Amino acid sequence: MAEHVINPKKSHMHRSIGDITISVVTYIVYAVFAFVCVYPFYYIFINSISANDLSERGKVILYPMQIHFSNYSHVFSIPGLLNAAKISVLRTVIGTALTVIVAAFLGFMFTRETLWKRRFWYRFVAVTMYFNAGVIPWYLTMKTMGLTNNFWGYIFPTIVQPFYIILCKTYCESVPQALQDAAEIDGAGTLRVFFSIMLPVIKPILATIAIFAAVAQWNSFQDTLILMKDQSLYTLQFVLYQYINQASSLKALISNTTSSAQIAASLAHAATATSIRMTVTVVVVLPVMLVYPFFQRFFTKGIMIGAVKG
Description:
Elements: H1 8-13, H2 17-48, H3 52-56, H4 70-76, H5 81-109, H6 118-126, H7 135-144, H8 162-173, H9 177-185, H10 190-201, H11 203-219, H12 222-227, H13 236-257, H14 260-267, H15 273-307
Helix pairs in contact: 2-15, 5-8, 5-11, 5-13, 8-15, 9-10, 11-15, 13-15
């Protein structure tokens, strides 16, 4: 008796109307969701390369109009921009590296039964997530420690992050204890176990923490506003923030001293507050968007295991 062989193509053709309807609805929902996520970035970009007068009046919605790149030449010609970019890159790289290492080490140590007063120190660190002394005590502390007008003022306050430590601790608890026991039987100490055993195993959560910390460091500008008076220590975000404010002030000055016709003529050729905001947003967000895909594959595994022990 011949065996009955099911043809996959024929089986696929006999899908029910309900299955087809669900598939179509799913695709539509995901397409709408993708559009909602992508369109704001697309809108900002097309406004940054369109005619400034049209962008100022909200005429650029679906596609760029009268394309030009003078807005980017204006932004990249800002005095001190290159040095500010260097400071931002340095604080992002150094701050992220130290934050990740400290979070990993403290998270690992809080899982060690041999740590003296382990529960007390863990709760002591965790409670700082809920209580904040405020800006003035923080500033006075930073000033007393000599961290005003000091590059390390960007780094030291961000090294210990309770949320990241908790993620690492929970992730470390999901690692089989037998790995550590085997290393200790072979004579490995605490540091050897941490660097040789735990760090390679907990890479997903470290990658997740790295992208969170890097984005926070890259986007931060309030600490520059409060702590730094030396222009050589200004970050890229702070310099661009100043530039946006200057553009807004210039627009208000032109509006008060010029006729409407003259304003319309000048806006077509000169950078406006809107065009500058759009261009600055692209310049600031683009590096993060380029780095994010390299870490995205770690997110699901890292954040899920790091958040819930099971």
